[in-house]
Design brief:
Blueprint lengths: L12 H12 L6 E5 L6 H13 L13 H8 L5 E4 L10 H12 L8 E5 L7 H12 L5 E7 L7 H4 L3 E4 L5 H8 L8 H7 L4 H7 L3 H17 L5 H6 L6 H17 L10 H10 L4 H19 L6 H16 L3 H14 L1
Parallel strand pairs: 1-4, 1-5, 2-3, 3-4
Helix pairs in contact: 4-5, 7-9, 8-9, 10-13, 12-13, 12-14, 14-15
């Protein structure tokens, strides 16, 4: 647990106060599900709340950071805290990890009156691990608080969701995000970073100095090159194999959504390459744009759920879909050209 996790983020205050009330009244459920998109601070909130639940001397409703339990958490050696997440390069949480959790739950607290465990992301539990966790939830220990963090709660087992109190974390208001993000920015504007991150402030913060911004620029250049018939879709895809597909999928989703909003008067800061590709999409029928958007949103869901598709084939198909989308404007242009020739 990072030592900076001593307070909730500004946009999390209402959820924090609600859970503080339950904690102080001894009415916390045995399991909480923190659900919402990536990058809005769910993991930060879970870490901070775990610290508070174990802290011996909270100050102003946040962990003190200096008592024995806080220092043990800082050192990563608190016997009453346990966390599980995909290990090494694995994308799933395995049953052996949940068995260790079950063993942890069965023990008596050593430092205080409760134990806390964090499972993140909960949707990465494989089927055997999910069933093992379900048994834990069905027979909860009164002195254990389970905190599940999920970026895609819809793919969690319904029986797991039903045994947790759900706390929703939505994309925060833009004004609050910019107030928090602006002092942290150096090379890019907070507005641009936030738009690149789809409104998720922590994702925007992590983009600073990250190779994903360079990959995003290369992706925009490649899309424009395909649209301008400078390279083929397969040639463009070959230049994008070094990066992960999810950021590319999310970027194209954002640009397509922006192309639909621009005719409605929505303005957002984008660079020259992004402006060029969005200007291409606005010429396409919205129905065709939404068709590709639906496909990309499904691909994003699959990637977030831990599926491991062939990266090369996925990027190639995305580039070919982009080329096919832009071809939808060709009949209109050709008809206009023919009409002008007829008038001449």
């Amino acid at each position: 647990m990072s030592e900076q996790h001593l307070a909730p983020l500004p946009w999390q205050q209402s959820s924090w106060q609600r859970l503080i009330g339950q904690l102080n009244d001894n009415k916390l459920p045995h399991a909480l599900l923190f659900a919402g998109p990536k990058g809005v601070g769910k993991v930060h909130f879970a870490d901070t709340f775990a610290r508070l639940a174990l802290c011996l001397s909270p100050i102003n409703q946040v962990p003190c950071g200096s008592c024995k339990t806080c220092l043990l958490l800082k050192a990563g050696s608190h016997p009453d805290f346990f966390s599980i997440h995909p290990e090494d390069k694995s994308k799933v949480i395995k049953i052996d990890q949940v068995r260790q959790l079950t063993d942890f739950v069965s023990k008596t607290p050593q430092q205080g009156r409760r134990k806390v465990a964090i499972i993140e992301p909960a949707e990465s539990l494989n089927i055997n691990a999910a069933n093992a966790l379900l048994k834990c939830l069905e027979e909860p220990a009164g002195d254990t608080l389970l905190l599940l963090v999920s970026h895609m709660p819809s793919i969690l087992m319904a029986t797991i969701r039903s045994r947790c109190q759900k706390v929703d974390f939505l994309i925060p208001p833009r004004v609050e995000c910019l107030e928090w993000l602006t002092p942290l920015t150096v090379s890019h504007s907070a507005e641009y970073l936030l738009d690149c991150a789809g409104g998720a402030p922590l994702t925007a913060r992590d983009l600073m100095g990250d190779e994903r911004l360079e990959q995003r620029t290369l992706f925009a250049q490649s899309l424009n090159a395909v649209g301008d018939h400078q390279v083929s879709a397969l040639e463009a895809a070959a230049k994008l194999q070094s990066g992960e597909p999810l950021p590319l999928v999310e970027a194209l989703i954002g640009w397509l959504q922006l192309s639909v909003k621009i005719p409605l008067g929505v303005q957002t800061p984008i660079d020259e390459q992004e402006q060029a590709l969005v200007s291409k999409v606005v010429k396409v029928k919205p129905s065709m744009v939404f068709r590709l958007l639906d496909k990309l949103l499904l691909v994003k869901k699959q990637l977030l759920s831990g599926s491991n598709p062939n990266k090369q084939l996925l990027i190639e198909e995305m580039m070919m879909d982009w080329y096919a989308l832009l071809r939808q404007v060709q009949p209109v242009q050709q008809a206009r050209h023919s009409l002008l020739n007829g008038l001449n």
